[in-house]
Write a structure and sequence with these properties.
Elements (H helix, E strand, L loop, with lengths): L1 H25 L6 H8 L22 H10 L11 H10 L12 H10 L7 H4 L1
Length: 127
Amino acid sequence: MIKKLFINITCILLGVPLLLVIFFKFINPPIWGWKIARTLSPPEGYPTQTHHQWAPLTEISSNMPKAVIASEDQRFPEHYGIDIDALWSVISQSDTTGPARGASTITQQTAKKRIFVPQPNLYPKSL
């Protein structure tokens, strides 16, 4: 009974994010955690109105996607969403004050920002 419950919960915890990623690959999400948080409690000086318009890759410079990928995740073409080598490197180099740098990939950052509302605590950072 407990084993079956554990398996079901594990499948849900792994399956729901996977289905959301697949779904939002093809559908522009109408709202996301960051937008909700900025609407409910905008930081001081944050504009009251923002307008974001999605543009197809064909309408922007071909260098823009490459620049974003290069600045955020240099090993993007070499992994499948989680950079195990970078994670182990950060874990092995961290000291008592915590890691000196992060190891999240573009995939991990996107999932975190689409699924979770930005919080001023360490819980989302740990994901």
